[in-house]
Amino acid sequence: MANIKSQKKRNLTNEKRRQRNVAVRSHVKTLAKKADQAIGANETDKAQSEVVSAIAAIDRACAKGVLHPNQAARRKSSLQRRFNHMQTS
Fold first, then answer.
1. CATH code at position 40
2. Domain that holds residue 35
3. Most buried residue, 14, 62, 69, 85, by CB count within 10 Å?
4. Tens of pLDDT along 58-82?
5. What is the pLDDT of residues 46-62, one digit of tens each?
6. In sequence order, what DSSP letters do the residues of 10-70 get, joined into one string?
7. How many domains does the chain have?
């Protein structure tokens, strides 16, 4: 345990950030799963709206610094690729 007052404060803020990051990451994963389920069911209209909302959530997480920009780009690309493949099939 830290003895220094500023480090104790830092530990508190680190924990708050960690909890926020966990919540944001979980939300992004949930939206991606919903989009994948809609893609798997071949529901074009629903899948499109789910993909758009998942991509928006990924962009917000990236802007907050929760996701690395390359990881965000990879997730968006993968999701969009699956959606496009579903439309052509």
1. 1.20.58.110
2. 5-88
3. 62
4. 999 999 999 999 999 999 999 999 9
5. 999 999 999 999 999 99
6. HHHHHHHHHHHHHHHHHHHHHHHHHHHHHHHTT-HHHHHHHHHHHHHHHHHHHHHTSS-HH
7. 1
